[in-house]
Amino acid sequence: MMTLIVPIAANKAEYANKLPQPFRYDDTGTMFCVKAITGLPMDVIKDIYFVILREHDERFMLSEQLDMQFRKHHLDNAHVTILDEPTGSQVETVARAIQLNGISGIVFIKDADCYFTTDEILPQNGVSIYPLENLPIVDPQHKSYVAVDDMFYVTNIIEKRVVSHFFSAGGYCFEDADEFCRYYERLKDYSPLYLSHIIYAMLLDKKIFRPIQIEDYQDWAVTRVN
Fold first, then answer.
1. How confident is the model at residue 161, as a pLDDT?
2. What is the DSSP letter of 25?
3. Exposed (0-12), middle (13-18) or buried (19+): which is 3, by Cβ within 10 Å?
4. 207 in helix, strand or coil?
5. Rounded to the nearest 5°, which phi and psi values hold at 220?
6. What's the rounded Cα separation, in Å, for the pair 105 and 133?
7. 66 and 60 in contact (C-beta within 8 Å)?
8. Alpha-carbon span 132 to 145, nearest angstrom
9. Which residue numbers in the chain have pLDDT < 70?
10. How far is 34 from 69, CA to CA, in rounded Å?
11. Per the CB 3.0–4.6 Å rule, which of 14, 36, 48, 67 could disulfide with 78?
């Protein structure tokens, strides 16, 4: 079993007067950040943590809205973690969530601004991939790219440079939460810091990552869902 973490603690200027996009609703009344996880195999997930900012929670009453979404989608194992201050990166947000909740073992990190389906997430280091040519709308400059060898091992991951036709689709599995935090501590002064940097550092240390193949990918950041 693994722990699912959904970090949504960015503090962008446009959030001062309007609800952040991941907390808006689709036509079925489902919050996008909740919809983002519905394509995952829930039978392997022990607990789910949505990580938000106190400032946004107080301004938009997010805890109450998320609790209603959890009940609607029967997510009895979902929780809200509230951070008092913005973090410097998504990586720091995840590390804070791990520390605050005493999370150990396997963690799966899911971006809140996209959706995909997958039948299986193995209990090992992995990164979700999707072919760039399968996207109806392409925004290649805002993605990280993943190189995969003939034996289906991840050999490289890099931000904003097309080194492969596979890009990271917003799902990341780490088989040891403590190890993730150790790499964060090593790289925390690097700015900007992305999850791809953590994975790359682990690859340099001969850690094995497998690609996670997905289907039905939707990039809401590109399609500008309202």
1. 72
2. B
3. buried
4. coil
5. -75, -25
6. 35
7. no
8. 9
9. 13-14, 16, 137-141, 163, 222-226
10. 7
11. 48
CA distance 192 to 140: 18
* pLDDT tens digits for range 108-164: 999 999 999 999 899 999 999 999 888 776 666 678 899 999 999 999 998 877 767
Q: Residue written as tokens 């997958």?
A: 118
Q: Which residues, other chains included, contact 130 with Cβ-Cβ below 8 Å and sequence gap of 6+?
A: 116, 166, 167, 169, 214, 217
| Burial group, residue 137, by CB count within 10 angstroms (0-12, 13-18, 19+) | exposed
Q: Each residue of 115-124: pLDDT tens digit?
A: 999 998 999 9
Question: Could you tell me the pTM of the whole model?
Answer: 0.94
